[in-house]
């Protein structure tokens, strides 16, 4: 037998792999309320009280299973905790095409939630963004029951309560 390294046998193949999976009853309710009523639901753990947004089936802190009764409506406003401005073309998973750029993308917490969320923001000049700024959800007029129903979160100016 030759000690010469053999080239491995390969088959080059490009495949299309469509798949679907169950998102669970809490997420179904989340998307129904988003579509029908522009409501933002989170799930509140019955043991530790942590509010997850978007809703989770199991609390990340104490592993308690949550049910539909644990869904709570959250405010449409939140506070910015981090951000970036994307300046290069990127495939938009909602459309499969390239998303127009620049666009803002942020990490924030909705009022009443204990977890962070990421979504698009309307500001594309990063010099105008600061951690602590307030944001508010802007919804599509015709919603389909997916996360794209929230177009982006707009930066808002609010008078701070004393
Ligand atoms: Zn918990």
> How much of the residues is beta strand, in percent?
25-35%
Radius of gyration of CA atoms, rounded to a whole number:
21 Å
- Count of strand segments: 10
Look at the helices and sheets and give the structural class.
Answer: mainly beta
Mean pLDDT: 92
Ranges with pLDDT <50 over ≥5 residues? none
Largest β sheet strand count, sense and barrel closure: 5 strands, antiparallel
Q: How many helices in DSSP terms?
A: 1
Amount of helix: under 10%
Structure notes:
The protein has one helix at residues 25-37; strands at residues 40-44, 51-52, 71-74, 77-86, 90-91, 98-99, 103-110, 117-121, 134-139, 150-156. With 162 residues, it is mainly beta. It has one domain (25-156). Strands 8-7-4-9-10 form a 5-stranded antiparallel sheet, with no helix packed on it. A hairpin with a 6-residue loop joins β1 and β2 (51-52). The chain is globular, with a radius of gyration of 21 Å. The relative contact order is 0.17. The chain binds zinc ion. Zinc ion binds at residues 45, 47-48, 50, 59, 61-62, 64.
